[in-house]
UniProtKB/TrEMBL annotation:
Alphabetical keyword list: Signal, Transport
Encoding gene per record: gluB
Pfam families: SBP_bac_3
Family annotation (InterPro entries): Bact_solute-bind_prot3, SBP_3_CS, Solute-binding_3/MltF_N
Protein name, UniProt field: Glutamate-binding protein
Protein's GO biological process: amino acid transport
């Protein structure tokens, strides 16, 4: 889908008006307005293999990166004019609310609580919560087996570890870090017994450390990944949803998933249905 210059100008004006009304003139960005200027700032993860990874040469790779670039192109912005900004889990809403990014594609689960602060396009992928353990571990097979005071790591600003404690293992010891890569290092050096987050994220880390780490058990939640953008930027959200649907219909979604996540051995699912709430 390509949008003409006149259409983009009109959309930009509408989006600015909507944000000014809904947000009291704060610093939130309109995606359409930024796209009209010819550049975008997009939040991604920098430390998730197969999803959002900053490579040693300064380039970026992963499925979220490919989604971000495809959406940008559908808005008329070439990949080289997209600036990627790190979006750690605890900072995602703040980055959007402060206008530091146009949108975020960073394994960002759509939840009712988050929709009170930001809007979402998508979902563009559906994952499920799982567990990562050391390869020689035999006693952790699922969330219930974390009972007995086992040490479980996840990321501040995310919900997986608390979900395990509330639902499956009340006496589990929770450890939080700012990034999943820090959790993985703690797991590798024996400081924690397991890491929990979405299965697709964990599969990337297991592939990064073959023979050292493994994903265990069946997924025990449903995590719908969306593209986060400023609350009230309805026109832009519609365009982002259009772009996601076009990526799926064109085959680009499948190709991107196969090239980025496929090498980890993660079983590739069918594409999701966009929810235009």
């Amino acid at each position: 889908m390509r949008i003409t210059r006149s259409v983009r100008l009109g959309i930009g004006a509408i989006a600015v008006a909507v944000l000014a009304t809904a947000c009291g003139g704060d610093e939130q960005r309109s995606v359409s307005q930024s796209a009209e200027s010819g550049s975008l700032v997009v939040g991604i993860k920098f430390d998730q293999p197969g999803l959002g990874l900053r490579n040693p040469d300064g380039t970026f790779s992963g499925f979220d990166v490919e989604v971000a670039k495809y959406v940008g192109q559908q808005l008329g912005v070439a990949p080289e004019n997209i600036e990627f900004k790190e979006a750690p889990s605890p900072q995602r809403e703040t980055l959007i609310e402060n206008g530091e990014v146009d949108y975020i594609v960073a394994t960002y689960s759509i939840t009712d609580a988050r929709k009170e602060k930001v809007d979402f396009a998508g979902p563009y992928f559906v994952a499920g919560q799982s567990l990562l353990v050391r390869a020689d571990n035999t006693d952790i097979t699922g969330p219930e087996s974390l009972s007995g005071g086992k040490r479980l790591c996840s990321v501040a600003g995310s919900t997986p570890a608390q979900n395990v404690k509330d639902t499956y293992a009340q006496d589990v010891q929770l450890q939080e870090f700012d990034t999943y890569s820090a959790c993985v290092e703690a797991l590798r050096n024996g400081a924690v017994d397991a890491v929990t987050t979405d299965d697709i994220i964990l599969a990337g880390y297991a592939a990064q450390y073959p023979g050292q780490l493994k994903v265990v058990g069946e997924p025990f939640t449903e995590e719908r990944y969306g593209i986060g953008l400023a609350k009230g930027d309805t026109e832009s959200r519609t365009l982002l949803n259009d772009a996601i649907e076009e990526m799926i219909a064109s085959g680009a979604w499948q190709a991107a998933l196969e090239s980025t996540v496929g090498p980890s051995g993660y079983p590739l699912p069918e594409p999701p249905q966009v929810d235009r709430y």
